[in-house]
């Protein structure tokens, strides 16, 4: 779950298959580490098979934090996957388009 370190491309955090309230504290720490330093970042949700609304809340919060600090955070969210369904069902402010990238 550690972000990759490469100065020329965005840092990427690939989430594990399970991202529920039980894991959200560790996920929060990983997201904070990812956003530290202001480099462009990506959170890849492609492998997530089990999640709940706590993950979506964390993603929304991370996006707001990155924007507040002048950074850029994107998401890889397969449009037909569980995370996209949670976002749509909850009416959260994260775009899920046909490219699989959250805005």
Draw up the topology in text.
Layout: E1 11-14, E2 18-19, H1 24-35, E3 41-44, E4 50-51, H2 53-68, E5 73-76, H3 82-90, E6 101-102
Parallel strand pairs: 1-3, 2-4, 3-5
Antiparallel strand pairs: 5-6
Helix pairs in contact: 1-2
Any overview of this molecule?
The chain is an alpha/beta fold. The protein has a single domain, classed as Transcription Regulator spoIIAA (2-Layer Sandwich). It contains three helices and six strands; from the N terminus they run E-E-H-E-E-H-E-H-E. It has helices at residues 24-35, 53-68, 82-90, and strands at residues 11-14, 18-19, 41-44, 50-51, 73-76, 101-102. The protein has a four-stranded mixed sheet with strand order 1-3-5-6, with helices on one face. A two-stranded parallel sheet has the order 2-4. The longest helix has 16 residues, at 53-68. It is globular.
Shape: globular
* Percent of residues in beta strands: 15-25%
The counted number of beta strands is 6
Number of domain units: 1
Largest sheet: 4 strands, mixed
What structural class is derived from the secondary structure elements? alpha/beta
Distance between the termini: 22 Å
Q: Any idea what the CATH superfamily is called? A: STAS domain
Query: How many H/I helices?
Result: 3
Low-confidence stretches: 98-103
Write down the CATH class.
Alpha Beta
Taking all residues together, what is the mean pLDDT?
A: 86
Give the strand line-up of the largest sheet: 1-3-5-6
């Amino acid at each position: 779950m550690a972000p990759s370190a490469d100065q020329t491309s965005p840092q990427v955090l690939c989430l594990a298959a399970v991202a529920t309230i039980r894991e959200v504290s560790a996920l929060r720490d990983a997201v904070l580490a990812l956003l530290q330093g202001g480099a462009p970042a990506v959170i890849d949700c492609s492998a997530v098979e089990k999640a709940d609304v706590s993950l979506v809340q964390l993603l929304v919060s991370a996006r707001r934090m990155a924007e507040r600090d002048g950074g850029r955070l994107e998401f890889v969210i397969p449009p037909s996957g569980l995370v996209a369904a949670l976002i749509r069902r909850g009416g959260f402010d994260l775009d899920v388009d046909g490219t699989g990238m959250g805005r």
